[in-house]
Amino acid sequence: EKIKDGIKSMSNAIGLGDDVQDFKVLNLESTRQPLVVEFTVTKTGLFKWTATGAELALPFQQLTFPQRTEAEWKDKTRAKLGPPATFTLRASLELPAGFTPTLPIGINVVREGYSFMSSYRYDGRTVEAERTFRSMKSEVPASAASEYLAFTRAVRADEEQHLALCRRQCP
Q1: Distance between CA atoms of 85 and 112, rounded to whole angstroms?
Q2: In whole angstroms, what is the distance from residue 106 CA to residue 47 CA?
Q3: How many CB atoms lie within 10 A of CB 64?
Q4: Cβ(161)–Cβ(105) below 8 Å
Q5: How far apart are CA 127 and CA 122, in angstroms?
Q6: CB within 8 Å of 20: residues ≥ 6 apart
Q7: How far apart are the C-alpha atoms of 7 and 58, rounded to whole Å?
Q8: How far apart are CA 171 and CA 146, in angstroms?
Q9: Secondary structure (3-state) at 117
């Protein structure tokens, strides 16, 4: 029951509510395999409808980065990222019939010690979205602050993209 409550909390955190079905957790006991959490949420009313179509913020929680501004770097010698890890978030969205998506543009940003990749695909009526953050180092030195800040801005820009839907074909 605690696992289900945790999954409901994750779903709530990304704005999908707590009507979670078909959840599973894989590799919970393993220290060598990635922890995998999968669940299904059916929710209506996520699209912001307009006269020509709709817009949707993708259902992902924003990544949290330490020291995201120059002011936050002031008098700091490093930013602690935590232990090396990989976080992959995937979403499948089934679209209503008669609509075509304009997908966000995926990015691939690689820096020494950390990377971020996003991809967006459409297959028939389903949009597949995936975002992966990987940290290979536990901290970023102050000497790399400007590169790190550029990286976090690129990630934020990707997170702020929306999925647009057009009736029939998009221009």
Answers
A1: 14
A2: 21
A3: 6
A4: yes
A5: 4
A6: 4, 7, 8, 11, 39, 40, 41
A7: 18
A8: 38
A9: strand
**Whether the Cβ atoms of residue 100 and residue 126 lie closer than 8 Å to each other:** no
In whole angstroms, give the CA distance from residue 119 to residue 58.
12
Question: 147: which DSSP letter?
Answer: H
Q: Each residue of 119-134: pLDDT tens digit?
A: 999 998 899 999 999 9
List, in sequence order, every beta strand (DSSP E) within the chain.
20-26, 36-41, 48-49, 53-57, 78-80, 85-94, 99-102, 108-111, 114-123, 126-135, 139-141, 162-167
Structure tokens at 171: 């221009």
Amino acid at 28: L
Tens of pLDDT, residues 29-61:
888 887 788 887 777 777 777 777 888 888 787
Give the count of beta carbons closer than 10 Å to the beta carbon of residue 165.
23
